[in-house]
Amino acid sequence: KIGETYIEILCFSSLTERAIARHEVREIEQRHTVDGPRQDVTLDEEDDVVIIYNRVPKTASTSFTNIAYDLCAKNKYHVLHINTTKNNPVMSLQDQVRFVKNVTSWKEMKPGFYHGHVSYLDFAKFGVKKKPIYINVIRDPIERLVSYYYFLRFGDDYRPGLRRRKQGDKK
After folding, report:
1. How many Å apart are CA 2 and CA 57, to the nearest integer?
2. Residue 150 within a domain
3. Which residue numbers are catalytic?
4. Best exposed site among 117, 125, 136, 163 by fewest CB in 10 Å?
5. Mean pLDDT (whole number) for 147-171
């Protein structure tokens, strides 16, 4: 009986969080309509594209991002790095609401390519119809571990002078 009650509380808590998030999104949208839109531009379907590359560490994500920067420049995409606190990929509910609103309403930055160490976020939970496209690069788990070992031991070529907290002895 206690376990069932606990599960019911968790389900209720999750539903409550979603309802609050939807309400906050509606409030932000109403504020924008009262204050006026940032720009009176209607985007074409192909210009209303947002791609989110939620980077998985040690899967050639830096190399892929460098290629993406070159391709985005040629194809007139805006590139934005999603910088999370301490590279924590999980966002609070409040940050999720802000992120969804920014990604969907920032017309000046569309089409856009967002990249960073972020977890998948279901935009449909927040009532968004035009959802971003998510992409990932994956790698064999053992190869990732080997790459991480050498990364911690020797650093990387991308920022060779950076001293990392977990970096080991190079001897």
Report:
1. 40
2. yes
3. 115, 117
4. 163
5. 72
